[in-house]
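hey so i finaly got around to running the thing on DUF1211 domain-containing protein from Stenotrophomonas nitritireducens. pasting the sequence first so u can double check i didnt mess up the copy paste, my clipboard has been acting weird all day
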Amino acid sequence: MVLQIQVPDGATLAALEPLIPTLLAYVLSFVYVGIYWNNHHHLLQASSRISGSVLWANLHLLFWLSLLPFGTRWMDDYYTQPLPSAAYGVVLLGAAVAYWLLQRRIIAAEGDSSALKQMLAGDWKGKLSPVLYLLGIGLSFVQVHLAQATYALVALLWLIPDRRIERRIG
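ok and heres what it spat out for the 3d tokens, dont ask me to read them lol
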């Protein structure tokens, strides 16, 4: 993900100030990519069977993640405006739904005895995240920075890795 982060116009901390929104947007999106990368790796590592519908669900997730640079750049360019912030939230919500669908397709491919189904029981972060994304989307039209803080909060929740799958496959 490249956002064309410009070099500051000077060698002082004050010269960095105009770049703060860009740097924050980049860091947030980079963290999200890392979270999905790690969880996707664990998810597929725990899977015992991959079907055609799993491949399509995986592609669906990739589609939403491919929109992250666009959403990040738009939110960065207009970080005080509601629509770009809401659009960023829609991309995050789309990725969360796509990841959930991928989990469901893997479980369906594995059948009734799916070990993954047991590993994902009690997935409170997976259930809470879309609710917070919807809250952030709505907050975008009330207070943009609260919306962006909500997106950051979800990322912070996921920075603590989901150890359920790792414990089972490790």
